[in-house]
């Protein structure tokens, strides 16, 4: 399907926390002046070398919520800027953007809704608030493999025993992440086989993200986000909380706050894009998590990953 002017519909997808790994974007920063500039701006603003943590670790520091969130944002923006620099007039232009959890902030920046410095400051505070909430409310997340939504809800209801336990990430068919108190997560892992799950995997996260256990973090973020200047996106950005495009600048603030305590509707978001005729997908940032999820959503769709200097060189060769 084409846009009104005959162009192929293109989606830019941006990964979230969990896709980070030591060494990410180091080769891209060497190869691209535009990427180096993004890392330099981030390091200057933050007052410490985020770039060196991304490139050299240590892993335990990179994996903290407080560091991994700005790291993923900066690496994804660097990859986007490097792509524009390398391909010039041949660079793909998005007709729609989406990002998984933290990646939604990258999508909003790329769509022109928020400037780089403001977005970086916001994701730093988001990571800090989520880390603090995680420390004050012991919680976790578990990836449930092989169950449909209704069965996952039944598992949560049984394992909760009066505590918080909810579906938090609808990633793709057969993969739903649940979030809740540490004890409820432990019970869910033990009970999952009885509900027919093929696996139940505890995720290496600091806390129960996208659940009511993040209410304090959401409250703190709402106080900060009120002072941030958002513009209406220049291209549609699909919101995690309702799989619908943002309508205006005010709705951005509302939905980003809701995202802290409500489920991420990633599969629903991708199905919406497919239903609307998007043909080409680019995952811009570290890893290939979103490409993997798309394979489970629709095997016919190939997602091009822009996650290294090699990947960018390959794309440039195709565009030449």
Q: Flag low-confidence runs.
A: none
Instruction: Provide the succession of SSEs.
Output: EHHHHHEHHEHEEHEHEHHEHEH
| Distance from first to last alpha carbon | 24 Å
Share of residues in strands: 5-15%
Major sheet strand order: 7-2-1-8-9
Count of DSSP E strands?
A: 9
Largest sheet: 5 strands, parallel
Assign a percent range to the helix content.
40-55%
Shape: globular
Q: Radius of gyration, Cα only, in angstroms?
A: 19 Å
Number of helices: 14
* Average residue-wise pLDDT: 95
Helix/strand-derived category reads alpha/beta
Jot down its keywords.
320 residues; alpha/beta; five-stranded parallel sheet; 14% strand; globular
Topology overview:
Blueprint: E1 10-14, H1 26-31, H2 33-46, H3 50-56, H4 59-62, H5 65-87, E2 96-99, H6 103-110, H7 116-136, E3 139-145, H8 149-160, E4 165-172, E5 175-181, H9 182-191, E6 199-202, H10 215-225, E7 237-238, H11 249-261, H12 266-275, E8 280-284, H13 289-297, E9 303-306, H14 309-319
Parallel strand pairs: 1-2, 1-8, 2-7, 8-9
Antiparallel strand pairs: 3-5, 3-6, 4-5
Helix pairs in contact: 2-5, 3-5, 5-6, 5-7, 5-14, 7-10, 8-9, 10-11
Structure description:
The chain has 320 residues and is an alpha/beta fold. It is built from 14 helices and nine strands. The protein has a five-stranded parallel sheet, sandwiched between helices. Strand 4 and strand 5 form a beta hairpin. The protein is globular and about 55 Å long.
